[in-house]
Design a protein that fits this description.
The complex is a heterotetramer, with 1 copy of chain A (about 260 residues), 2 copies of chain B (about 220 residues) and 1 copy of chain C (about 210 residues). Chain A folds into 2 domains: about 170 residues, no CATH class; about 70 residues. In chain A, about 70% of the residues lie in helices and about 5% in strands. Chain A has 9 helices and 2 strands; from the N terminus they run ααααββααααα. In chain A, α4 runs antiparallel to α5. Chain A is flat. Chain B has a domain of about 160 residues: P-loop containing nucleotide triphosphate hydrolases (Rossmann fold), CATH 3.40.50. Chain B contains 9 helices and 10 strands. Chain B is globular and about 45 Å long. A two-stranded antiparallel ribbon of chain C has the order 1-2. The chains are: A mainly alpha (about 260), B alpha/beta (about 220), C mainly alpha (about 210). Chains A and C meet through α1, α2, α4, α5 and α7 of A and α1, α2, β1, α4 and α7 of C. The complex binds adenosine-5'-triphosphate (ATP) (2 copies) and magnesium ion (2 copies). Chain A: Its main location: membrane. Chain A: Pfam families: CbiQ (PF02361). Chain A: This is Cobalt ECF transporter T component CbiQ.
């Protein structure tokens, strides 16, 4: 992950804390996961520019509706774009076709440019939709809805365990990292740095493993016999059905546009 | 009156560390609140672990709730009747939400879902923690986590409480709250702590673990 | 290492998803309920460790650590990495939705392979040899992942071939760093908690 | 005599928690051992973190070792001269063996490997911890860990020591040993602790953090 996510990552408390309730939050979480998936499917398989533009516009609208934190979202989307950019810059030069312009003697083709912009549109539309529709629920809710969507039980509980201990271990990591800093440790490009960071990670794993042993003991003490239980209530309400119908019509229309 | 928990000649050693418990005799009677003190690494936590079978004794006998306990399956019942509060609340709160965590014990004891939920709600209410049901466990403060782990243990309706440094890392208010709550509970308890004031207000008897031996502290020794 | 949505061809996505699903299913089967806390907590630890950025010259790289994940978790690396990738995609916008399968497979398969290749080496009696095997595990996993990412791109169209090659070259420093870091971590764990690395496939308790 | 560390109008607040330090003025002079007390969560640890730049102040100035310190790179030098002992030794020990851990600081200061190792050996010996060089840090007792972290800090030859609850979770003997060691050191210190007796034996001056303000405690207030 890019570096500046580190902060939001280690002090991660799920997205709920700073997030304002929105229209999207009133929808059933299962529905949100399914909707995001179908949307991604339609957008990624579309090749028409118009469809992709509508897709991106929809995602932007969803981001508005979900009251996403503008700055934070922008940083994340840009992080992803930076990652792709190198792929996209290369495409016009490696795709044969009608030459639009050339850089340092290398011809850039129109087809390549189109292909590159399609990838950019698709990736941004999907990520924005994901952040606003699924990313606005708490990680715990995401786990519940996966369970309700028949994702295997073990995987769901694994996700919930990971989420539960991310913060605990993140804090532990932060304290150890600070203690190293306090001893005048500065990251450099040398073996001392790499060895120290390797030790840090190793120690973090040892602490984590020992914690997991204590957790297993605590579970035994509470009579654990190989079963976990989830308690959540998810019932489809009227607005969910409305959303379902509208969403289905919209996605069908988008798909249809491809064949015009 | 018969002892709830009794050990005879209890013996334990760690591979590298050596003997930590050498022929320890101990009894816990109903209504007692026994303070267990001792230096760091004396073996206090190990002792509690042995009582509920999380570690296997290398010698001696453990009688609990009227029976000799030897095998893992004997201890399953002991763990249901002896509520164990761990040193670090984070180790004990492993479910995503508070309600699920508190209901985890009753569900494992075979209660139905609705029963378990209602037990969990009642227990939370009795500790003054109503309204916390849907909170996410990892977002609670230290003091809140401690109270929820206590609720989780009490929800199993134990006869005995085993508390491993319960007041650790609590600030004054949270500590006082815990103290008041524990004083009001009728359960027999064993309390490990380094906090003398806390123990003085809570315990009815003190034992100290020194050199792998349990030593009964009388009023006189405590005063010194 | 996370490919975004939109770049890969449909068949590549589908095959990736199917292979990842198979790997995850096998990993879940190997991991019984008693080891859920262990895999869950370690998976959280790896998630945290993947924030670490190390400077290389004027730029910086972040660790992937899939070699170490493989050595620590074996086949459970598949579900653990899937969980991490889901969380990254959904809450950080890193990666994509439909590429989850391909991304999981690209990162988890090398982890599992390195587990088989290096698990004996890292328990060698000489720390030097164990360190070398650790380095092979760390660098090898990243190398394989890079090759697979490049492969996924190349399979999606000839136009990506250059990008695929560039990916490979750009990751050479990452391989070196991962090798060193993984070796150090392995050496530490060997000394501090040797039972950790001897975890056999069946997850017998040490 | 000029102050080693001085703050003027130091200000800090946490996003959700609010202001923890409000225009704090503080000076530490050579030879002083300042006790820093205050309730849990008062902001004591935060204050020390600010002094060495582990957190960035939201206002005010920090002068340390004769210079105004603002940027991360200014603080790198401060951290070399101000040895910081963390609250929990486990957070500070991350190398497999004691020797490596103690040598970590000198290595960061640019010493060669052989120099660093010889410094580490000397420091351990001066604290009476020879023979611990090849022990595994993770397997030490609480008191031993504390002494090793102290050695690790002293190996950097600091001018000032910042101690965050050094006697925490130590048993009587280990605590006494630490106390004797600290009393014999010539360094200026800031010591956070809740242990009044420990502070009484060590400190030359007391300040208390109350409501985001640092209050100088005179003999009279301490006696109360
Ligand atoms: N798994 C282990 N292997 C070897 N030694 C161990 C292990 N677990 C604990 N010990 C050692 O056994 C001794 C007793 O540990 P225990 O945790 O019971 O002490 P304690 O009295 O609870 O101490 P504290 O007050 O610090 O909690 C310690 O010296 C500890 O280092
Ligand atoms: N990262 C953070 N985000 C928000 N609040 C924080 C953060 N870190 C600490 N705090 C809060 O800031 C306050 C001061 O914390 P600090 O650790 O400095 O207290 P302290 O005086 O050292 O307490 P203690 O005696 O418990 O160690 C506390 O209320 C704490 O909850
Ligand atoms: Mg203990
Ligand atoms: Mg503090």
């Amino acid at each position: 992950m890019p570096q500046f996510l580190e902060h939001s990552g280690t002090s991660w408390k799920g997205q709920r804390l700073k997030h304002e309730q929105s229209l999207i939050d009133s929808l059933d979480p299962r529905l949100r996961v399914v909707a995001a998936f179908l949307f991604a499917l339609v957008v990624v398989s579309s090749e028409q520019f118009l469809v992709l533009l509508i897709g991106l516009a929809t995602s932007l609208l969803l981001a508005r509706l979900a009251k996403l934190n503008f700055k934070r979202t922008l940083r994340r989307v840009i992080a992803m774009d930076m990652f792709m950019i190198f792929l996209i810059i290369m495409l016009p030069f490696t795709t044969p076709g009608e030459v639009l312009f050339s850089v340092a003697g290398l011809p850039a083709s129109k087809e390549g440019l189109l292909h590159a912009s399609k990838i950019a549109l698709k990736a941004n539309a999907v990520v924005l939709c994901l952040l606003s529709v699924v990313g606005t629920m708490s990680a715990t809710t995401l786990g519940y809805s996966m369970a309700r969507l028949r994702v295997p039980d073990k995987l769901v509980h694994l996700l919930l365990f990971t989420v539960r201990y991310l913060d605990v271990i993140g804090q532990e990591y932060k304290r150890m990292r600070r203690a190293m800093q306090a001893r005048a440790f500065v990251l450099r490009t040398d073996r001392h740095t790499w060895r120290s960071i390797g030790y840090l990670i190793g120690m973090l794993l040892v602490h984590s493993l020992e914690r997991s042993e204590r957790i297993a003991d605590a579970m035994k003490c509470r009579g654990y016999n190989g079963r976990f239980y989830l308690m959540d209530e998810m019932v489809l309400a009227r607005q969910d059905y409305t959303f379902m119908v509208m969403g289905a019509l919209f996605l069908a229309a988008l798909t249809g546009l491809n064949f015009l | 009156m018969t002892a709830l928990i009794e050990t005879r000649d209890l013996f334990y050693r760690y591979p590298r560390r050596g003997v930590v418990l050498d022929k320890v005799d101990f009894s816990l009677y109903p209504g007692e609140r026994v303070a267990l003190t001792g230096a760091n690494g004396a073996g206090k936590t190990t002792f509690l672990h042995l009582l509920v079978g999380l570690k296997k004794a290398k010698g001696g006998e453990i009688h609990a709730f009227g029976q000799l306990r030897k095998e893992e399956k004997d201890f399953v019942e002991v763990r249901a009747k002896a509520g164990f509060l761990f040193q670090d609340p984070d180790d004990q709160l492993f479910c995503p939400t508070v309600l699920e965590d508190v209901a985890f014990g009753p569900l494992n004891l075979g209660r139905s879902r609705t029963e378990a939920i209602s037990i969990a709600r009642d227990t939370l209410a009795s500790l003054g923690m109503e309204g916390f049901e849907d909170r996410i466990t990892h977002q609670l403060s230290g003091g809140e986590k401690r109270m929820i782990t206590l609720a989780a243990v009490l929800a199993m309706d134990p006869d005995v409480l085993l508390l491993d440094e319960p007041s650790n890392a609590l600030d004054r208010d949270a500590r006082q709250r815990l103290l008041d709550t524990l004083q009001a509970l009728p359960h027999a308890m064993i309390i490990i702590s380094h906090d003398d004031d806390f123990l003085a207000q809570l315990s009815t008897r003190r034992v100290c673990l020194v050199d792998a031996q349990l030593i009964e502290e009388t009023e006189a020794t405590v005063a010194v | 290492m996370h490919i975004v949505d939109g770049a890969l061809a449909g068949p590549v996505l589908a095959v990736g998803a199917a292979l990842a699903a198979a790997g995850v299913a096998y990993g879940l089967k190997k991991m019984d309920y008693d080891h859920l806390p262990q895999v869950g907590v370690l998976s959280a630890a790896f998630f945290v460790a993947s924030y670490i950025h190390l400077p290389i010259g004027f730029s910086s790289v972040h660790l992937i650590l899939n070699g170490l994940i493989g050595l620590a978790l074996g086949w459970a690396a598949f579900p653990a990495l899937l969980v991490a990738l889901i969380l990254q995609a959904v809450f950080f916008g890193f990666g994509g939705f439909l590429v989850l399968g391909v991304n999981t497979f690209n990162i988890a398969l090398p982890a599992v392979l390195m587990y088989y290749v290096c698990r004996h080496g890292i328990t060698a009696s000489s720390p030097r040899i164990a360190g070398i095997w650790g380095a092979i595990g760390g660098a090898g996993a990243v190398t394989l992942t890079t090759l697979m990412v490049a492969g996924s791109l190349a399979l999606s169209g000839e136009a990506f071939w250059l990008a695929a090659k560039a990916t490979l070259i750009a990751h050479i420093p990452v391989m070196v760093v991962e090798g060193f870091v993984t070796a150090a971590a392995v050496l530490l764990i060997r000394q501090v908690k040797p039972e950790f690395l001897n975890i056999p496939e069946e997850w017998q308790d040490a």
